[in-house]
Amino acid sequence: MTNIIGQYVRMVTFLFQRQGIQLTTLFYLRYIQVQGGIKLFQRKLIIFLWRLAIDRLPTRLNLVSRGVDIGNIGCSICNHGVEDNHHIFFSCLLAKEIWRKVSLWTSVDINRFASWSEWLSWYDQWEENISNKNRMYTIVAATVWVIWRFQNGVIFSENPMRKDEIFDSIRNYSYTWLFSRSKKQMSWNSWLVKPL
What we know:
The protein is mostly helical and 196 residues long. It has one domain. It has 11 helices and no strands. α7 (93-106) runs antiparallel to α9 and α9 (130-156) packs across α10.
């Protein structure tokens, strides 16, 4: 698996260099691999996190900047602000509420970040044992994943996820990703009370 990811990173790096795109975040797949994410995350999540890091998710602002005529570029969740990565995941009223809940649950103040790169910078310097770092990374990955799925459900689904299901989905995804492929186990009840 590691060799396949390495080949993929080299191929993507070559393609992006050819297009003149900055390479500062292109080694994001390597970053996730170092954090243990390759073992924990499905490929679609790894690619989602990588696209988030390089601002290539199909947000309304990104679609308009690529010439797609969608009319309204306002946030589909709160109708305030332009729908871009920063807004969807960090400054939308719903996102702020979700980060507040995640902060209370983990006892770590993570609701203060305005962007994914800010969060990654903090995470790199966070002095914590590797087990808790992996858990925190997985919880944050689950948070942005569930926010993205909720936002897409609002736009495309006849029966979108309810707002009151978001936090439970985050806890469920993060627990499943961490412990379904791990030798170390934690009870579900312990996870709900104190994940770190």
